[in-house]
Specification:
Helix content: 10-25%
Structural class: mainly beta
Number of domains: 1
Radius of gyration: 15 Å
Largest sheet: 7 strands, mixed
Number of helices: 2
Length: 174
C-alpha cells in the first residue's frame, strides 16, 4: 500500500468513521442500536426515483463483515461529527463492488458520504483490518506526518431531484 493510501485510510477511520460505533458490544453481544439507520432499498435509486444517492463502492477485499455507509449534509459542523449523519446503512459485505441507495432529505443541496468495511462485523473499528473511503475520493494531507481529515468542500457533491451516482474506492491499511 502506498504512503498516501495509508494516510487516507488512517484519516478516514480516525477522523470519524468510528464515531457512532461502540468499541464493544457489551456482555450480551447484541447489535447496538443506531440512530438514523435505514434499509438499503435500491428501488429508491431506480430510474425516475429520487432525490437519492447511489453509492457504488469498489475494492471491497472480502465478503466478511459489514459495509457501513454514513451520509451527511455537506456542512462543516456536521461532516464526520459523531451522530451528525442523517442516514446510515449497514449491508452484509460482498467482495469486489457493492451498491447502496441513500435517499436524501432534499434536492438541490450538497451532501457527503463516508464508508467503512467493518471486516469483523462487530460494530467496532479495527484499524489493522477495516477499510474506509469518502465521496470524491479526496487526497488526504498531513501535518507533521499526522493525517488531517479533508475539508467538507473536498467531499461535497450536489444532488438534484433524481438519482445522483457516486463512486467510492475502499482503501485498506495493510
Amino acid at each position: 500500500m502506498s504512503a498516501l493510501s495509508s494516510r487516507v485510510f488512517a484519516t478516514v477511520l480516525a477522523a470519524g468513521l468510528a464515531l457512532g460505533v461502540p468499541a464493544s458490544l457489551g456482555a450480551q453481544g447484541a447489535a447496538p442500536k443506531f440512530t438514523n439507520l435505514i434499509e438499503n432499498d435500491m428501488s429508491r435509486c431506480a430510474p425516475g426515483a429520487g432525490p437519492a444517492v447511489r453509492v457504488d463502492v469498489t475494492g471491497m477485499k472480502s465478503a466478511d463483515g459489514l459495509l457501513i455507509v454514513r451520509a451527511y449534509h455537506a456542512r462543516e459542523g456536521e461532516w464526520l461529527k459523531a451522530k451528525k449523519y442523517f442516514a446510515k446503512v449497514h449491508e452484509p459485505a460482498r467482495k469486489g463492488r457493492m451498491s447502496v441507495c441513500v435517499p436524501v432529505p432534499a434536492a438541490g443541496e450538497n451532501y457527503a458520504v463516508a464508508v467503512q468495511h467493518d471486516v469483523k462485523g462487530n460494530y467496532a473499528t479495527n484499524f489493522s483490518t477495516d477499510g474506509a473511503g469518502m465521496s470524491n475520493n479526496p487526497v488526504v494531507k498531513s501535518f507533521i506526518g499526522i493525517p488531517r481529515p479533508p475539508a467538507v468542500d473536498k467531499v461535497a457533491f450536489p444532488v438534484g431531484s433524481g438519482v445522483t451516482r457516486i463512486a467510492i474506492e475502499m482503501r485498506y491499511r495493510g
